[in-house]
Design brief:
Blueprint: H1 2-13, H2 27-41, H3 51-69, E1 70-78, E2 81-86, H4 89-105, E3 117-125, E4 129-130, H5 132-142, E5 146-154, E6 157-162, H6 165-177, E7 186-189, E8 193-201, E9 205-206, H7 208-218, E10 223-235, E11 239-248, E12 252-256, E13 261-272, E14 275-288, E15 293-300, E16 317-320, E17 323-325, E18 328-330, E19 333-336, E20 342-344, E21 349-357, E22 361-367, E23 372-382, E24 389-390, E25 395-399, E26 409-416, E27 419-421
Parallel strand pairs: 2-4, 6-9, 11-15
Antiparallel strand pairs: 1-2, 1-3, 5-6, 5-8, 7-10, 10-13, 12-15, 13-14, 16-19, 17-18, 19-26, 20-25, 21-22, 21-24, 22-23, 23-25, 23-26, 26-27
Helix pairs in contact: 2-3, 4-5, 6-7
């Protein structure tokens, strides 16, 4: 009987609880559970006042790591399949709107994600919460009808998309290379061309060759090429004329033949779609200079006039025209000048008269042998004689106030077939003084 009592006491004093068969996700949770069991097994030996402290310690050891590691979030499922976590419904809505906006710009205005996406409150590791951009990629890549693709935009308008950015770069390079003549040419797009990675309908993703053909056909993009061109050009020779009194008038003799030169020219050429729009000379250097042509123009008078007159005197005042004056016809023009002013032949010819008369004073008549004659009157001195061959512009007299004259001047007449005509038909003397 004593033995049985001793056995019962022994069994009663040993209070060992059989541990539960549990699985723990990591060592940290196992240690927390183990410590908790130790404390619970020893509760009879611990005063009640310390039980609450022990429970608080246990809760702290469990909740603090949980709060640090986990965060409230929204579990996102697409067509019943979990695809990620969002920090808020607003973040998810923004991602949906951006996807739908991108699809609308590329011809899918009726596409909507709302019916396929479900959201439920949840917890997750902070590192598993996706940003708006990550949600766009995740939703797009998890959908059956849309995908992330590389697109070409021109001034903000989407023109086409390919599966990868290398295909887009290949298309753009082909467009630029088409108009380049040399590797050194600088080719660029006239429009604002950009590459963007955006959600698009899988049906609209093109191959690089299809996209290239589409852009060429529709001519959506213009290519500007700036290139340097080098060529030679001809330097035309100039013709110099010299007068020679050894050659008869109106005779031209070549003294030196002209020869064109050669220059090297560097230019900058701008083209758009192969059509030249601008050319600018950067540098020009002479390889071979041009040789001028020199011709001699004869001034030696042969007595034949050209029919083209010059005013025979300078520094004059036009005082009287070809008109009726003092009741009789004034057959020439009067050009007032100081006595001694040089008088020149109005055209080439032969002197037929060089003498003094009562009315004209000292005067000269030149026959230009072409039906025209000129008369120079009231001179103070005559410098040529009858029979002299006179050249156009040659000095023949000094002006004066001889004969029937009211003041120093040159009286000048032109005769056609021995009839006096108005000199103002041939020459401009300015305004007559009244």
């Amino acid at each position: 009987m004593d033995n049985n009592l001793s056995l019962k006491k022994s069994q009663k004093s040993v209070n060992i609880k059989k541990p539960l068969s549990l699985k723990f996700p990591n060592k940290c949770f196992f240690n927390i559970y183990f410590k908790t069991q130790q404390i619970m097994n020893n509760i009879p030996t611990i005063p009640k006042i310390n039980r609450l402290a022990a429970l608080a310690i246990c809760a702290t050891c469990f909740l603090v790591p949980f709060a640090i590691t986990f965060k409230p979030a929204f579990n996102i499922t697409l067509n019943g399949k979990h695809i990620g976590f969002a920090s808020s419904k607003e973040s998810l809505t923004l991602a949906e709107n951006l996807i739908e906006s991108s699809l609308a710009r590329y011809g899918q205005a009726d596409f909507s994600l709302s019916d396929n996406i479900q959201v439920t409150p949840s917890f997750c590791l902070k590192t598993n919460i996706k940003t708006t951009d990550e949600l766009i990629y995740t939703i797009t890549n998890s959908s059956e009808n849309i995908c992330m693709a590389s697109a070409i935009t021109v001034n903000g308008e989407i023109l086409g998309a390919c599966e990868c950015v290398d295909d887009i770069n290949s298309v753009l390079k082909s467009l630029l290379d088409e108009y380049k003549s040399n590797p050194s040419d600088n080719a660029s797009f006239v429009q604002d061309v950009k590459i963007k990675t955006i959600p698009v309908s899988t049906d609209l993703v093109m191959t690089s060759s299809s996209l290239l053909q589409s852009l060429k056909t529709n001519k959506n993009i213009d290519v500007q090429v700036i290139s340097n061109a080098q060529h030679t050009e001809t330097i035309p020779y100039q013709t110099q004329k010299i007068e020679s009194d050894q050659i008869e008038q109106n005779v031209i003799k070549t003294m030196q033949f002209g020869k064109n030169g050669i220059a090297s020219v560097s230019e900058q050429v701008v083209t758009i779609n192969g059509q030249e729009t601008q050319r600018m000379v950067l540098h020009r250097s002479v390889i071979t200079p041009a040789t001028d042509c020199i011709v001699a123009v004869g001034t030696k008078s042969n007595g034949i006039g050209s029919g083209q007159f010059i005013v025979p005197i300078s520094g004059y005042r036009f005082t009287s025209a070809f008109k009726i004056r003092d009741g009789r016809w004034h057959k020439g023009v009067d050009l007032a000048v100081p006595v001694g002013t040089p008088v020149y032949a109005a055209d080439s010819g032969i002197v037929t008269t060089s003498k003094l008369s009562d009315s004209y004073g000292y005067y000269i008549v030149i026959d230009h042998q072409n039906g025209l004659k000129t008369l120079y009157a009231h001179n103070s001195s005559l410098l040529v004689k009858e029979g002299d061959a006179i050249s156009k512009g040659q000095q023949i007299a000094l002006s004066g106030n001889t004969g029937n004259s009211t003041g120093p001047h040159l009286h000048f007449e032109i005769h056609s077939n021995d009839t006096a005509v108005n000199p103002q038909i041939f020459l401009n003397f300015g305004t007559e003084l009244s």
